[in-house]
């Protein structure tokens, strides 16, 4: 964050005294931002070649623990994958890499969102499963480093944050396509404070950035039997940026006449998600970054808590899979890390398997998670010692996954 320290605007003063070269500084600052973004948008417009990870063998999967409960739940997910992918690993088709060091301590010590050596190791993988990382917020007394998540999404241009939410007994089957690199996040660490007077943050939405996420949402709908795509926005107030998003949305919708396209303002959308009578009518959502951040936490809560939802961060050359929740440092402080719920990271792991071409294993993990968390609930995690441990829950899931009657059981529950 840049501080134009030479501006004094104390209350009661009529004239803001502008000293030195404020205007030059401000102009240069804004100019640099615009140049950088022009460059970025140009790049994304020409980046249309996606690696097909279902065909890439051997494929390298990185496991990045993160902070707080991160390493514990990532370990559990890895243990399960190791068992399920045993043959593929033995044949050398799948390679696992442990990547250590993405911790808050290291980030603070090096004053970087991701230490260089960690970044290099991630770059050597094709896809990676990442545990939550603690994000310092302004004013917390921790140096104001950029969030590791936000940095990784931008660094690898992981523009699509895909978050599915299912509530089976209500027939809710939502999938959110959250734009992941723009909006208030693009320049979130580049706001300006005119000292003690006011601050400005920048919201950026590009045509190319909107196009690629919206197209992905419609393509997904088309290929997976969904009949409706809903764009979430606040174009009645934030006219320029959300105006672009909506314009692109309806342009693209024209190529998909068989799919119903509609748009809702973010405020009423958050209300509709708790409207039990209507919410299951929504199917695919596409949203700018911050609205997507907020709405997907709400949706996950409806599914059973943020601890149950997984997410994929997709780019053309890399993909990162993660839980949607934070690092829960309090659980570690209170020595409860072994009771952490691994559901969301295991859901992320199943999304990863689907993305890299192991659809049938992914499907089994999904069914096992649903049976375990939404129906059978034989082993229940509470986050405390009155519930199961992470490992016990993992064993329960494994027993469901390998059960030849899993699908039958699942159908039975669904149709009950
Ligand atoms: C998420 C998280 C992140 C975000 C935070 C940790 C920066 O809330 O993945 O939804 O805001 O995107
Ligand atoms: Mg969030």
Concise synopsis of the structure shown:
The protein has helices spanning 22-46, 70-84, 86-90, 104-110, 116-123, 148-155, 207-223, 239-253, 266-272, 289-303, 329-333, 343-355, 359-376, 390-402, 406-415, and strands at 2-3, 7-8, 17-18, 59-64, 94-99, 127-130, 160-167, 172-179, 192-194, 198-200, 228-233, 260-265, 284-287, 310-314, 319-323. The protein has 416 residues and is an alpha/beta fold.
Instruction: Tell the overall outline.
Output: globular
Arithmetic mean pLDDT = 92
What's the CATH architecture of one domain? 3-Layer(aba) Sandwich
Continuous helix count? 15
Helix/strand/pairing category? alpha/beta
How many distinct beta strands? 15
User: The CATH topology of one domain is what?
Assistant: Isopropylmalate Dehydrogenase
Based on CA atoms alone, the radius of gyration comes out at 22 Å
Bound molecules: 3-isopropylmalic acid, magnesium ion
Helix content bin: 40-55%
Order of helices and strands: EEEHEHHEHHEHEEEEHEHEHEHEEHHHHH
CATH superfamily (homologous) name of one domain: Isopropylmalate Dehydrogenase
Output the CATH class name of one domain.
Alpha Beta
What oligomeric assembly is this protein in? single chain
Q: Largest sheet, order of strands side by side?
A: 5-4-6-15-14-7-8-13-11-12
Largest sheet features = 10 strands, mixed
- What fraction strand? 15-25%
